[in-house]
């Protein structure tokens, strides 16, 4: 039940400008890890306690040299973390690995509340007066609009740029840290999309306001991971005992990798990997699942997997990963298509998911089936982001 | 008085993803047309009844297979449609042809109200809590700012992208329908600009929220058409009996084509076409006007036309239509200029209009004359869009 | 004490579309100048009285030919201008030269108030219902976000474009004046960034709503100048008697030029210029300072200057100014670096400032020192802009 393991796909970047903070964070990671090496199934679990980032708006005196993030690891009994009062704080959202089962449960509970927020109700105004900056170093309109909608659905305001590369362009040449220090002066929370793995972590280490990673290159996209798990619980009604078939590009897709990682936090999970040979799931995840006692198998038979699963999670084969080898791409992309035939063998309660955008790996006729959950999944992204914004700005 | 005719410049695109809806729409068009073939001047007229698009925010259960748009044609007596209670609904704004005289009258009445909305008054907050997505596949800053201003003047909020092409770019490759289904999850209404004729209609067929066409390539730009007609009524005080001179590029300009179409709904209208030979008004419009009993003539004498008209509607000769033939372009653009001389023969109550941007087809010295109505016309675009947003989101 | 002189780096552009207004403005400049040629230290000083731009939203009748700006020069006793009741009006913010000492004092007083505006307080809603258009002809994300944050921190709303060049692009080809007349119809205030010197002045001459210059090419960037002076007062506690070292690219940097100009309005100021030979401060500013009785000297010894100054104002050497001569650039940029050694000789109360972005002309280790004021300086830009928005939209 404990959520001990740390699965670092995104190595710490060095050097960063706030070494104290980073050192503290690194120490915490080591402590956290070692704690659970000692008692991996102890029935108690670790709880992270971050102090709230002090959102210092006064400027009436000089700022003291900053040492904002104090970390400590803390054993608690097997209570849901939400009961620990106001002490439990979400500080930044940087990577899937920062969430254990209890935090997920708590976030999902808030997410459910967000689904019930009605226009012009009191709860639709809880972030009134707050300002979110969407700092995008590359365009990702879908993700950006989802975050901005989330902020506005809660009464908050948005500063937006898809042109953040200008900060670090040849002519201007500013470091990410300097940009963050400027932008944090204008806003209460920063949602950042970057082309470099690890950029979100560097930003969070610098910022005195919360940072949400909206994707940093091949690194992490934690809100996508959260909405995927949330959608499974929402659609199927449970996470323990779930059977999920992950289909398509399992080598490069960060969504399926994060999903497999997060599902390992639940009991009695079974994962099927269905992919063309060239884009098979990598060994690090398989080894990790084995280590965590999660059952998994690889299969070349989508129909059989579909008939057994609660969730068929289809992904796009990304042409850009194949470079010149368009022959390999064409071979891979046509291999596992979710169509009417696949639907016909799926169970009545099962669903088809997809992180979108899709090309033709799910045929259009599937859309009309109630088991096509991918547009509802996209909508859940809105609710997850509303929940995170609330949690980061107002706390539990 | 009845508004029977359908003037389709924009053919139905096939295939679309919601065949039922489209079939229904097509059936309706046929019915509508045939109704009036039977009784073109019957004193009664057709009324379209769309059910409101169900803006389903609950997601608490599965969505039922959608069949959202039910259409029926309905004969009513010769009352203004605004008296039919709340049953008359504007669903989407896709093309000029969807408006008959009564709908125009009703929209203009709301538009007048919009002119009187004052800062921080109650009416300036009627769209509070609503979220508009401006989904622009090509930049059109003027149109976008006008819509966004309209939404904010009524207390609503905006999600904006001029980068929507990214959705359908080579790497991402999403269909318009998938994009719409994602964006409708984030917003309450979609304003779309697209480079392809018919795109707005496809979007509306897919979306469960209202769609406004902000221009789809060479196709339609219905809010421009509405603001043009509104401006004439606002400036001259009437539409029946109006004399309008359409000047400039009449072959390619969608604004003058739509304007001629809409003016045909009024009585005793006279239209003059003044254009260089290479960009003359096309036969389809002329035939249509003849069929509708609208008087029109072509003239090469701008001075004479200007002296007779209530409205001189000047347009820009578009260089991009001439390709390599810059000689033809130069010849065409210099031919009919509205300047002080033209003004001097115009009647005192008459006005000069222009859809903007202008180059030198109206000289700058004309601006100071009170009869120069083109900046007021642009401002009217704001009020028209406020009215449409109100109508689509709140109803009459 | 009087603020008589006019230091025009930005010549009047001709022709402009509102000749009357411009003529009036030019007359005023001459009067203003001549007044002070007569009595440069008279103890009384000139006050400018602009009528408020009439923000005509009615459109119920035709607009009268516009002659909106009436100017007159007015002698008053030596009272702070803020006491003159509501008659003193800030109309547009176009260039540093429009501010005299009293106006600066008054603006800084409002700026202090802005620092104290709290989330969801009444003062955070004073611009509710107002709409600001950020009309950027070139991207400047830092400046844009700062203005937009300022507007939203006061409850106002924003229309934004970094794509304003589209208005004047080859295909569309609209004049700046026409664009302004369109955009003023959508908004209550225009913040403009342009690539051409003098563009802001042209926009202000046309617009019936206030215009703020957010930088026009090599011309002016008055809000940067204001925030620089404000920061000095905020950090050091005074402006009279200040000792400032201006370091780096003094030939091309508009910030240091404007700063030197504005400091000349205070008494007993001493300015040190420290720069590589190729980018020395130009004679026009030096002559002006001499004329105004401001002490200045050039020095090649940064350490010595730093030890004497209250403010070390470092600037970036701009590579783009050197063209092919990267050798000269490399030589220039390495010459005067603010690092730990420089800090060690600075006085305890002194500060390091920088307009940002910085490259390596201030080393990163300086950031942790409380005397590093540049991020606070950036934050002050927010407060200055809040103050200007308040003043332009609501008055004193």
From TrEMBL, chains A, B, C:
One of its GO terms (molecular function) is amino acid binding. GO terms for biological process: 'de novo' pyrimidine nucleobase biosynthetic process; 'de novo' UMP biosynthetic process; amino acid metabolic process. Pfam families: OTCace, OTCace_N. The keyword Cytoplasm does not apply. Residues 240-391 form the Aspartate/ornithine carbamoyltransferase Asp/Orn-binding domain. Pathway: Pyrimidine metabolism; UMP biosynthesis via de novo pathway; (S)-dihydroorotate from bicarbonate: step 2/3. Its EC number is 2.1.3.2. Homotrimer. Catalyzes the condensation of carbamoyl phosphate and aspartate to form carbamoyl aspartate and inorganic phosphate, the committed step in the de novo pyrimidine nucleotide biosynthesis pathway. Belongs to the aspartate/ornithine carbamoyltransferase superfamily. ATCase family. This is aspartate carbamoyltransferase.
């Amino acid at each position: 039940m404990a959520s001990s393991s740390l699965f670092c796909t995104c190595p710490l970047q060095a050097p960063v400008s706030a070494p104290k903070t980073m050192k503290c964070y690194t120490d915490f990671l080591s402590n956290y890890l070692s704690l659970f090496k000692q008692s991996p199934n102890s029935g108690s679990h670790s709880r992270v306690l971050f102090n709230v980032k002090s959102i210092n708006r006064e400027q009436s005196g000089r700022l003291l040299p900053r040492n904002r993030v104090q970390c400590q690891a803390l054993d608690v009994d097997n209570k849901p973390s939400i009961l620990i009062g106001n002490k439990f704080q979400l500080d930044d959202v940087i990577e899937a690995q920062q969430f254990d089962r209890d935090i997920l449960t708590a976030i999902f509970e808030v997410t459910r509340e967000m689904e019930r927020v009605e226009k012009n109700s009191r709860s639709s105004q809880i972030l009134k007066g707050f300002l979110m900056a969407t700092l995008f170093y590359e365009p990702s309109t879908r993700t950006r609009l989802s975050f901005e909608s989330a902020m506005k659905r809660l009464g908050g305001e948005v500063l937006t740029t898809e042109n953040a590369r200008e900060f670090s362009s040849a002519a201007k040449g500013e470091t990410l840290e300097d940009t963050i220090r400027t932008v944090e002066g204008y806003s209460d929370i920063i949602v950042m999309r970057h082309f470099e793995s690890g950029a979100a972590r560097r930003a969070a280490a610098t910022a005195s306001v919360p940072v949400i990673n909206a994707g940093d290159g091949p690194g992490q996209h934690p809100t996508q991971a959260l909405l995927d798990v949330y959608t499974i619980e929402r659609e199927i009604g449970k996470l323990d005992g779930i059977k999920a078939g992950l289909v398509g590009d399992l080598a490069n897709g960060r969504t399926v990798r994060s999903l497999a990682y997060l599902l390992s936090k639940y009991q009695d999970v079974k994962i099927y990997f269905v992919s063309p040979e060239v884009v098979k799931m990598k060994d690090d995840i398989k080894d990790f699942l084995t280590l965590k006692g999660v059952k998994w198998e690889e299969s070349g038979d989508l129909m059989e997997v579909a008939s057994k699963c609660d969730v068929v999670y289809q992904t796009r084969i990304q042409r850009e990963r194949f470079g010149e080898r368009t022959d390999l791409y064409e071979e891979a992309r046509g291999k596992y298509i979710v169509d009417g035939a696949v639907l016909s063998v799926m169970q009545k309660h099962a669903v088809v998911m997809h992180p979108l955008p899709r090309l033709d790996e799910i045929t259009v006729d599937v859309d009309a089936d109630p088991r096509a959950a991918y547009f509802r999944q996209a909508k859940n992204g809105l609710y997850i982001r509303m929940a995170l914004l609330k949690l980061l700005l107002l706390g539990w």
